[in-house]
Amino acid sequence: MTKAVQMTEEQQKQWIKEQYQRATKYLAEKGIVTNSVKVEDSRYLVPLLALWKLTSLDGKKFWVLCGDLPSDHSSIEVAPNARDALRHFSLKWQMQAENLLQAKNAEQHDFAQLLIGRADGLYKLYEDESLWQAK
Questions:
Q1: Residue 68 · residue 1 · CB < 8 Å
Q2: For a disulfide at 126, which of 12, 47, 86, 112, Cβ 3.0-4.6 Å?
Q3: Residues sharing a CB contact under 8 Å with residue 11, sequence separation 6 or more, in sequence order
Q4: Cβ-contact 71, 22 below 8 angstroms
């Protein structure tokens, strides 16, 4: 992930808003229209990642990850909280990368390497106790 950049509070709010729009657009492209967001369960590490807990019009709930990494989503059933959702995406991406590497396609190989790097970063965030302590 990219190095943290100093941002004003207003720039941080704008980044979070943009990531929310990116997450809802991503889901819409998958045919999922969102109805609401559970802000208290969502997490942001500006300007690296945003993890949203979103509910669709049909009542299904999703974790949606976006930011300086590939956008992705999973059913809420994969993780009870944001921390475990990061671990889920990390492990999911590691498996996807392994499958891509076995395909022996140069273009997919580059994407696999990106996934491996981002998966490693997500897992380090998952393990970082200081990020998850109650405030």
A1: yes
A2: 86
A3: none
A4: yes
